[in-house]
């Protein structure tokens, strides 16, 4: 009997995890047609159809559901075998903007950690401009940050829309300055929010200044005021009150990937994380 093509098996797992042939192709640096061909050969080899495909949906068949845990086992066994004789452990030092990370970060990082044994992952959260400085200085292998208007390098991962978020049931007393919940003065989003409110002639007062996105999320959920947040990272229990209060529209922001990796395995792990970031956040 012929053995299974492990590249095709890996492509199958990627499509199953990402729900998209296109995203799977982006992850491994292949074309969509190349991924489709690998899957067709795997299906022919197994004698079973693994996916149901429509223009809007990619879904595992019953046979695909049964094969998925076994496919993961095959790939894990291969990774174990490679790690057993690998002379050099691999380390990926990654910076992620605190504003970009959001509540989905644990699941996103699991995709990198799932690349197999022998991969050490170090993640630093911080403000975008500070992480870019560390990247330029050589202390970070890659960063996922908001676009710096002065730079032309990097790869666009996705575009974030912003709104003015407050706790459900929070109300602004007419005539009072708008209470703002923001990060520290170095935060670019804080500067943008203050600028657009000033341009619109809306008086505001800083009600809370946090040292990170977790503190800002907690203060917003506690009803301390309004925070300019990306829709994808807005904490549960908050709503966009911008339209109701007549607040100015906040411009969308590109999230960028900057990388200097040359190691194929580390690059593959990073591509997997980038592809996961492109997935829509579950409602």
TrEMBL record:
InterPro entries linked: LTTR, LysR_HTH_N, LysR_subst-bd, WH-like_DNA-bd_sf, WH_DNA-bd_sf
Domain spans labelled HTH lysR-type: 4-61
GO molecular function: DNA binding
One Pfam family per UniProt: HTH_1
Keywords: DNA-binding, Transcription, Transcription regulation
Superkingdom classification of source: Bacteria
Record family assignment: Belongs to the LysR transcriptional regulatory family.
UniProt-recorded name of the protein: DNA-binding transcriptional LysR family regulator
Organism: Inquilinus ginsengisoli
């Amino acid at each position: 009997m012929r053995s299974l093509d492990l590249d095709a098996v890996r492509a199958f797992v990627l499509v199953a995890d990402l729900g998209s042939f296109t995203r799977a192709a982006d992850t491994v640096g292949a074309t969509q047609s190349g991924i489709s061909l690998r899957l067709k050969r795997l299906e022919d080899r197994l004698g079973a159809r693994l996916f149901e495909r429509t223009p809007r949906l990619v879904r595992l068949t019953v046979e695909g559901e049964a094969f998925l845990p076994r496919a993961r086992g095959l790939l894990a066994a291969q990774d174990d075998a490679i790690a057993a004789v690998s002379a050099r452990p691999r380390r990926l030092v990654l910076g992620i903007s605190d504003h970009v990370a959001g509540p989905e970060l644990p699941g996103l990082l699991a995709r990198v950690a799932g690349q197999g044994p022998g991969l050490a992952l170090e993640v630093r959260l911080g403000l975008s401009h500070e992480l870019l400085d560390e990247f330029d200085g050589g202390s970070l292998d890659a960063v996922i940050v908001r676009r710096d208007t002065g730079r032309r390098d990097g790869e666009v991962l996705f575009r974030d829309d912003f709104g003015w978020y407050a706790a459900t049931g929070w109300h602004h007393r007419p005539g009072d300055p708008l209470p703002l919940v923001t990060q520290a003065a170095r935060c670019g989003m804080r500067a943008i929010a203050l600028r657009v409110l000033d341009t619109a002639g809306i008086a505001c007062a800083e009600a809370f200044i946090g040292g990170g996105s977790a503190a800002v999320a907690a203060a917003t959920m506690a009803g301390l005021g309004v925070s300019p947040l990306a829709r994808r990272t807005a904490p549960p229990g908050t709503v966009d009150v911008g339209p109701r209060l007549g607040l100015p529209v906040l411009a969308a922001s590109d999230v960028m990937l900057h990388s200097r990796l040359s190691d194929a395995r580390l690059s593959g792990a990073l591509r997997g994380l980038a592809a996961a970031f492109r997935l829509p956040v579950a409602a």
